[in-house]
Amino acid sequence: MNWAARWLNEAGHRWQDSGYPGLAGAAYAWAARLAPSWSVPWFNRGLLAKVERRWSDSLRFNRRAAELDPDDPPAWWNLGIAATATGQWKAARLAWTRYGIEIPPGEGPIEMDLGDVPIRIAPDSQAEVVWCRRIDPARAVVLSIPTAQSGHGCGDLILHDGAPNGSRRLDGHEVPVFDELEVLAPGKRHTFEVEVLAPGPADVADLETDQEDGVVAIEDWSAMRRLCQRCDLGTPHDHPAAGPADEWRPVRVLGVAAESERAARAAVDAWASRGPGRAFKTIECVLQREDSKPSS
Predict the structure, then answer these.
(1) pLDDT beyond 80 at 214
(2) Are 158 and 119 in contact (CB under 8 A)?
(3) Which range (82-91, 158-167, 237-246) has the least confidence?
(4) How far is Cα 177 from Cα 134, in angstroms, rounded to an integer?
(5) Most C-beta atoms within 10 A of its C-beta, which of 15, 82, 102, 110?
(6) Neighbouring C-beta atoms of residue 89, cutoff 10 Å
(7) Whole-number pLDDT of residue 64
(8) How confident is the model at residue 228 (pLDDT cuts 50, 70, 90)?
(9) For residue 225, what pLDDT is reported?
């Protein structure tokens, strides 16, 4: 192995870890030039491009890394992510297959049912873990109603990484949390913040299940809790209660995802009419989709 290429590759790692991606990229490029048959600098160039969301570069670099070392699973995985991000479905299908994933036959976008997974959206700013339906190894549709601060909405199609970063529990089992890479396509539903009066927990449970065949989604935002870093990046654990246990607060703040304010109001009004003491107080659109008006 060319000693200069190895030194430059290691220097690239140090510069990347120290926050100098430009120097790191140059070091990896020189290492690849000095050792043209060595796959590692090409993989590192592809990984750096992935971190910087330069998907065409990541696709090119990871493709070269996989050509030089066809038995390197991480190169195929990152190639699959980059190909998915750029809509290169032939390359994506090949990458996932070479990684060892059974992909349905076809030529266009991959449609699979890989179950529900928790994904950390906006991981570099307003990080929030939401539940999503995974439709292929690197794409998922948001099922939860993210808070407006995240800039995300129910129904967003997102690209996610494949390295687990924490875990959550689903049906009694631990499932890995993946980090979002970017939004590929926004959903159609606006997000509304609704304040209601709910006399007891059963009233909120009734509201959350009354979703008009999927037209409207509702979550009790008052029940959300902010996790400590250990919980967020690992497995959530118990914390001492901040106040009296089992104390119910009748005034609840709900997140409602709907294609119009009219649909959101109709769902909450129907809920309020079915039980004593229930009331619809206020509604505000906190995330508006650009292609339509929330009141339409």
Answers:
(1) no
(2) yes
(3) 237-246
(4) 12
(5) 82
(6) 16
(7) 98
(8) very low
(9) 64
Confirm if 194 and 256 have CB atoms less than 8 A apart: yes
* Secondary structure string (H, E, C) spanning the chain: CCHHHHHHHHHHHHHHHCCCHHHHHHHHHHHHHHCCCCHHHHHHHHHHHHHCCCHHHHHHHHHHHHHHCCCCHHHHHHHHHHHHHHCCHHHHHHHHHHHCCCCCCCCCCCCCCCCEEEEEECCCCCCEEEEEEEEECCEEEECCCCCHHHCCCCCCEEEECCCCCCEEEECCEEEECEEEEEEEECCCCEEEEEEEECCCHHHHHHHHHCCHHHCCEEEEHHHCCCCCHHHHHCCCCCCCCCCCCCCCCCEEEEEEEECCHHHHHHHHHHHHHCCCCCEEEEEEEEECCCCCCCCC
Spatial separation of the C-alpha atoms in residues 77 and 92, rounded to whole Å = 9
Q: Tell me the domains of the chain and their CATH numbers.
A: 3-99 (1.25.40.10), 116-185 (no CATH), 190-236+245-287 (3.30.70)
Tokens of residue 34, six digits: 């000095």
Nearest to 84 by CA among 8, 23, 14, 162: 162
Residue that has been written with the tokens 């009141």 in this structure: 295
pLDDT digits (tens, 9 = 90+) for 150-204: 999 999 999 999 999 998 988 888 999 999 999 999 999 999 999 999 999 999 8
Top pLDDT among 87 and 239 is at 87
Q: Provide the whole-model pTM.
A: 0.87
Token pair 């050792």 is at which residue?
Answer: 35
Nearest to 121 by CA among 81, 148, 160: 160
pLDDT of 233 > 80? The answer is: no
For tokens 């570069």, the residue is: 57
- The amino acid at residue 86 is T
Question: Could you give the CA distance from residue 151 to residue 137 in angstroms, rounded to a whole number?
Answer: 23
